[in-house]
Amino acid sequence: MIKIANYINGEHLPAQSENYLDNYDPSTGKVYSLIPESDALDVEAAVAAAKKAFPKWSSCGVEERYRIMNRIADLIGENMEELARAESRDSGKAISLSRAVDIPRAESNIRFFATAILHFGSESYHMEGLAVNYVLRQPIGIVGCISPWNLPLYLFTWKIAPALATGNCVIAKPSEMTPMTAYLFSKICVEAGLPPGVLNIVHGLGPKAGQAIVEHPKIKAVSFTGGTNTGKILARTAAPMFKKLSLELGGKNPNIIFADCDFERAVRTTVRSSFANNGQICLCGSRVYIERPIYEKFRDELVKRVKSLKVGNPFEEDTVQGALVSKQHREKVLGYLELAKEEGGSILCGGETVSPDGEYSEGYYLSPAIIEGLPNACRTNQEEIFGPVVTLQPFDTEEEALELANGVQYGLASTIWTQDIQRASRMAEKIEAGIVWINCWLLRDLRTPFGGVKDSGVGREGGMEALRFFTEPKNVCVRY
Ligand code: NDP
Fold it and tell me: Which of 225, 232, 409, 461 to mutate to test the pocket of ligand 1 (most atoms within 8 A of CB)?
């Protein structure tokens, strides 16, 4: 049985309590490794290590930080297959997805911020004849990065890369449900020569180890991705301590399809935007609005294609839908399917547990579900399910589509399918979301601002936004 270790001061250590938590393989439903159950004592040790490492790391120069981070990215690339298999084992996702998306993106995250820091400048303001102001962008010091289970190494690296590039030392906690690739990553950091204490990884439960990070007075900023309710707890804890906080939270994203869309591309992409990673991506569109003239045609084609997606053993090359992340999560999604029926919805396909043969028979599989006949205001259409479930609703006008799309508490991403660029631009302006994709989905440029409005979060990640978050601006005014 693999024993995962914390990574503190460059060493791999058990939790000080010496307690372990079981780590389940969602594809088989069996425990396959052990996770250190860390607490405030481990966070304290990590902070002490980070404090010691900070003066050197923050002043070693951007070229040195670039060199080490670029080496880390190289090593992710060299260990791609091992990391992809580990990611699929830990999270249940199809190996094809880990290979094509999760691990390549983790490599890109590190490389992107390693190079971005070489080009990071700051403003200056000239007061003619009087003075010049220039802005120093200095690292904050010790920062916390807390990430969720749906895109484990992908989101973990998305946070720590800008934090490290800007010269901060980091205390990071991956989700207790998917700790494995963060552990393998810590070994890569040692091999790449990252100095001890610059990055510290503390494994364990959110309310214990995660909370200890947020509460620690020496951790001055926290970047968090996770659920909206957890985000509220973080905000309550961090606000009286005046910590800088970036919150990337839940979503209930609309996917708006007009009758003049490129039908084939729209339907093909909607299969993906609805069900990629079993719908366990914060950017997946879970409310599909279809203009009435093509409602039946689009619905029937979508159902036909979704029925043909292969659900099962994530390690088979042609599997599209692996297992959901945990037994509890599958139960939560099944609960929502029951609720949808009570609320008057018809399940057009899916929503059934699947039991493959042999050692995978106890895994947490669920066939992708499409529901129609529900009003926008019902709970199924208002609450984040975060599983392989979408609802379909027809609409008649642009105004109605907008009202339906904006009629939830969330505002993360949205997708609009139309050939009419005027309409697409009008909609993009009025839609309440941090991200609008027109005639595409999940097309990501790492330089763009990333984040949500309303209950989907506060602040932006990505590109310069992330580098700004992890630095404090200091204005220096020089009188002539
Ligand atoms: P959670 O909010 O349950 O957990 C996120 C992280 O926070 C985990 O590492 C968790 O640890 C930790 N945590 C839990 N409680 C606390 C606490 N009190 N203090 C500090 N840390 C804590 O989210 P999930 O892991 O369930 O992830 C799914 C959610 O993430 C969905 O709502 C999804 O929409 C959202 N998400 C948002 C994205 C965005 O960019 N906006 C992107 C991806 C996902 P542990 O797991 O060990 O409990």
Answer: 225
Contact of 167 with 122, CB cutoff 8 Å: no
List per-block mean pLDDT (blocks of 10 residues) for the chain, which spans 480 residues.
96 98 98 98 98 98 98 98 98 98 98 98 96 98 98 98 98 98 98 98 98 98 98 98 98 98 98 98 98 98 98 97 98 98 98 96 98 98 98 98 98 98 98 98 97 97 97 98
Tokens of 428: 């993009």
SS3 of 395-432: ECCHHHHHHHHHCCCEECEEEEECCCHHHHHHHHHHCC
Domain boundaries, the chain: 2-249+456-479, 253-445
- From 42, 43, 149, 183, mutation site for ligand 1 pocket: most ligand atoms within 8 A of C-beta: 149
Class of the domain covering 2-249+456-479: alpha beta
Q: Please tell me the distance between residue 399's alpha carbon and the centre of ligand 1 in angstroms.
A: 34
Residue nearest to atom 46 of ligand 1 (CA): 175
Superfamily of domain 253-445: Aldehyde Dehydrogenase; Chain A, domain 2 (3.40.309.10)
Contact 173 CB / ligand 1 (< 6 Å): yes
Q: How far apart are CA 474 and CA 72, in angstroms?
A: 31
